[in-house]
């Protein structure tokens, strides 16, 4: 009796376990079918941007994204996309930098050309001042000695004379020992005065003309005075000759003859 009871109990346990396994299997199949249906199900009003893509799938970019990324270009066999805004920015920066560099280069070349032109002018002017017939080496030493002599002569004078005396002695020595070079230098100074100080040059020219006119008047007056004196002397000698009967113009012979 006990054996029969145990057999019935074991059979009941096996039947219950089998039923439980069948129920679990059925629930698992239903769950899989629900998941598959939900994964393939799509709502008509669902937004495309909110769909999560399956890993490994390639979604093409939209027109707005392609416009932002810019056109596709091949650079050394590599596809490159760059935004047009970024390209325009760097292009403008590069163009501005290039323009600035070109302006700086042009300005530098202009200043360099002006410097070399001025240097050639100064060199040619200085070389044209010296007369090749005049020796520079001994005569320059004489001019320096004359300038120092002016300093020595005016060492006990006031400050104005001490400043002007070396200049006067130096110019005087320059005019004596290098006369033609002095004339060329004087002409150059006159041209520079006319170019840079036209009013001063005109006044100086007017003063020089007045001095020349005064000198000419003095020379003319002296010449007229000399002619009057000569005429007076001649008339006096003639009067003496007429009164005394002596021939004053005749050379007096020596007593020995």
From TrEMBL:
Q: Which residue spans traverse the membrane?
A: 159-178
Principal localization? mitochondrion
| Pfam families xrefs | ApoO
**Highest taxon of the source?**
Eukaryota
Q: Which GO terms describe its cellular component?
A: MICOS complex; mitochondrial crista junction
Among its keywords, does the record have Cytoplasm?
no
Q: How does it assemble?
A: Component of the mitochondrial contact site and cristae organizing system (MICOS) complex.
Q: What is this protein called?
A: MICOS complex subunit
Instruction: Supply the source organism's classification.
Output: Eukaryota, Fungi, Dikarya, Ascomycota, Saccharomycotina
